[in-house]
Structure formats: structure tokens, C-alpha cells
Input
Amino acid sequence: FEAGVAGMRYGNYISDHDMKIAKKISWVMNGGDLSSPTLVSEQYLLDLEREAFLSLTGEPKTLERIHSILFKGKPLRN
Output
């Protein structure tokens, strides 16, 4: 997943911020930092998702995107 995202970035199909978001999604989908195959609970994945979302809301570019959707009704690509 991350190799595909890197290729899209190097090809200028996505922005640096798109890449940051994709890496957070990859982190959650892969279960975070597990050293071996492990069964995880739904709550564990929800906690990872919440952590990723909260870290992204600390980014000005994320807040600009949220503002654009809420007040202009269209996505912002920054």
C-alpha cells in the first residue's frame, strides 16, 4: 500500500498531505506496530483509528480540508 502511495506522490498525482493521510490509513489497516501476527480486537482498531484522526486534526491542512467540506461543500486538495 505504501509503495503505491509513494509512487503516486513521486508522479505528482497526490500531495504531501495526501501521502500523510494515506500512511495513517495504512497504519490503522495494518494494526499499528505489531511485531508478529496477532489477533486484535475491534476496540484496538478503533483506538488506532481515533489516534490517527486526532493526530491529523492537529494539522492545519486537515483543518482547511474539513472547513472546505463543511462550508463550501466541496473537497480541497492542498
Observations:
- The first helix runs from residue 2 to 10.
